[in-house]
Design goal:
single chain; 289 residues; alpha/beta; 11 helices; 8 strands; 37% helix; 16% strand
């Protein structure tokens, strides 16, 4: 079974985290492709992308309008909430006084959401990606979960979808999942250096807190950057892990649950190739059903 592109009823969409890597020219984009043409060419091969740049600052309306203009009807763009909201402060270390704090973050939240709404039907879930919080930032999960509960309750809806990713593995508890389910927010399953894999969590919990299931294959940044700092080919073999992710996605598909899966360059070295590998693994498992 071939996974279709631009099928509104598709149970899985695959894409990459960002589309703007200049190292993809010659490996994914044709030789000589200028950056301004990346997204349009990307959308000819994949029908969803996770925008990474919004984490580093509020996007300009003109930039978001360009994303819409360069992609066809049915394309899906997800994006990360700005760092000012999920990290707090401007320093390298998170500031627990500011993370999700209404007085510190709601102005940026409102501006971010208003700008992202310009995508209309192309807009997918917006991701609250939290860093690892040590005890100096939050002494335990409790204060963070209270802050998160309030923030999610205050989020505008009107068709907007949200997802939450945490990097403290001990904080992945039924209490967290119950909060997300109560607010109809997706729980992000992540393949990242110190977090448990999705199938491990799915054995312990019902990880489907809201549709769609949101999956991010991120990898170990330090490990891969010790091997390469260019992103034109895979340098790590994650075949076994991709098989596990494919099996999990197929299990969701069999339940009629939609999934979004995004791959980062830091996962194996070249996100588009990894997407193709994962797509093939999913298709083979569907054919074997």
């Amino acid at each position: 079974m071939k996974l279709p592109l631009y099928d509104p009823d598709a149970l899985v969409r695959l894409g990459t985290s960002s589309f703007s890597s200049k190292d993809w020219v010659g490996a994914f984009y044709p030789v000589g492709t200028p950056p301004g043409a990346f997204l349009e060419l990307y959308a000819q091969q994949l029908d969803a992308v996770e925008v990474d740049s919004t984490y580093y600052g509020l996007p300009r309306p003109s930039v978001v309008d360009g994303w819409a203009r360069k992609t066809p009807e049915g394309f899906l763009l997800t994006a990360k909430f700005p760092r000012s909201i999920v990290h707090g402060g401007q320093g390298a270390k998170p500031d627990g006084r500011l993370v999700l704090a209404p007085d510190a973050t709601y102005e940026d939240r409102d501006q971010f959401l208003a700008t992202m709404r310009r995508l209309g039907p192309r807009l997918g879930p917006l991701v609250l990606q939290f860093p690892y919080f040590n005890r100096q930032v939050f002494p335990s999960a409790g204060p963070f979960l209270e802050r998160l509960d309030t923030f999610l309750a205050d989020l505008p809806r009107d068709g907007l979808r949200y997802a939450v990713e945490v990097r403290n593995k001990s904080w992945v508890t039924q209490k967290l999942l119950d909060i997300l389910a109560r607010h109809d927010v997706s729980f992000v399953l992540v393949d990242q250096a110190w977090m448990p894999l999705g199938d491990e969590l799915a054995e312990a919990f019902d990880v489907v807190t809201a549709p769609p299931v949101y999956i991010r294959l991120l990898g170990d940044r330090n490990a891969i950057e010790a091997i390469t700092k260019t992103w034109d080919k895979e340098v790590i073999d994650h075949a076994d892990r991709l098989e596990r992710w494919a099996q999990l996605v197929v299990s969701f598909m069999k339940r009629g649950i939609k999934s979004l899966v995004f791959v980062n360059n830091h996962y194996a070295g070249h996100a588009p190739t990894t997407v193709r590998r994962l797509k093939s693994a999913i298709e083979k498992k569907l054919d074997a059903e």
